[in-house]
Amino acid sequence: MRKLIKGKPENIIKAGILILLGLYALIIIVPFLWMIMSGLKTNKELFLSPWELPEKWNFDNYLKAWSAGIGKYFFNSILVTVLATLLDLACSCSLAFALSRYRFKGARGLLMFIISGLMLAPQVGLISNYKLLQMFRIYDTYFAVIIPTAAFRIPFTTFLIWSYLVTMNKDLEEAAGIEGCKDWQALLYILLPLLKPILATGVLLTAKYAWNDFLFPLVFTENIALKTIPYGLSSMQSTQDTNWTVLLAALTISAFPMILMFILLQNQFIRGLSAGSVKG
C-alpha cells in the first residue's frame, strides 16, 4: 500500500508531463500538416474551407513552386548550408581542442574572446563585413554568405565542444601519445568518434541557422542566381497578386530538409543534450 501511495504522485507528474509534451507536439505538428494540406488546394478552397481536406489533390502547386525558382534557391541553400556547417565544425573543433588540451599564456582570455562573439548580433557587423568582403573581392559570391555564416556560429559551437572536452578523461590520448600518436591524429581518430553526439548537435543548430538565414544572402549578394530559399520565398509574395497555395507548397519544400536532418540525427542530438546536462 505504501508503494502505491508513493507511486501515485510520480504517476500524476509523469502523466502531466506527457500531456504537456503531447500538447506541445500538437502545436508544432498541426500547423505543419495544415501547410502541407493547404499546398494541395486551390486558392478558393484555401479561403472558403481552410480546415477541410481538398476536393482534389492538386500536386501541381508543388511543381509550380519548384519551377518558379525554388529549385534553384534550394540548391543554393543546400550548398551554403553544407559548406558553412563544415567550415564551422572544422574551426570549432580545432579551437576547442587547442583550448582544452594545451596550457599557454592567454588561453583563458582567448576563450572569453571567442565566447564573447555570442553577444554580437549579425546585424551589428553588416557594414564592416560588407567592406571586408569587398576588400577581399569575394562580395557577390557564395563565399560572401558561407564565411560570415560560419563565423557567427563558431563561438557557440566552440563553447559547446570545449565544455564537453574539458570533462573527458585524457587516458586514451595519453596512451596513444606513448605509442607515437600525434595530437592531430588523437583528435581525428580518438576524440571525434567520441564527440559524435556533440557534433550532431552543432550540425543541427548551425544548419538550421544557415538554412533559415535571410539577412546575409540579401545584403552580401546581388546576383539572383546566388540567392537562397528565404529570399526565394519572399520574392513569391506580392502586395497585389500572391498565389498562396503555391507559396505554401514552397514553404513545405523548404521545411523538408531540416525535418529530414533532424529525423536522421535525432538520436545523436538527444544524446548530445543529455551528455551536456550531465557533464556540464
Mind explaining what this structure looks like?
This protein is mostly helical and 280 residues long. The chain has one domain (73-279): MetI-like fold (Orthogonal Bundle). Helix content is 76%, strand content 0%. It is built from 12 helices and no strands. It is globular and about 70 Å long. The two termini are 39 Å apart. The model is unreliable at 1-6 and 276-280 (pLDDT under 50).
Key descriptive features of the protein:
280 residues, mainly alpha, 12 helices, 0% strand, disordered C terminus
Show the helix and strand layout.
Blueprint: H1 2-38, H2 43-48, H3 60-101, H4 107-115, H5 126-135, H6 143-165, H7 171-178, H8 183-194, H9 196-212, H10 215-220, H11 229-235, H12 244-279
Helix pairs in contact: 1-12, 3-6, 3-9, 3-11, 3-12, 6-9, 7-8, 9-12
Q: Gist?
A:
This protein has 280 residues and is mainly alpha-helical. It has a single domain, classed as MetI-like fold. It contains twelve helices and no strands.
Order of helices and strands: HHHHHHHHHHHH
Describe the global form.
globular
CATH superfamily: MetI-like
Mean pLDDT: 84
Provide the helix percentage: over 70%
Report the uncertain regions: 1-6, 276-280
Largest beta-sheet characterization: none
Give me the oligomer status.
single chain
CATH architecture: Orthogonal Bundle
The rounded distance between the terminal residues' Cα atoms is 39 Å
Tally the helices: 12
How much beta, percentage-wise? under 5%
Strand elements, count:
0
Query: Any idea what the radius of gyration is?
Result: 24 Å
CATH fold name: MetI-like fold
What top-tier CATH class fits best? Answer: Mainly Alpha
List the domain count as a whole number: 1
Question: Helix/strand/pairing class, anyone?
Answer: mainly alpha
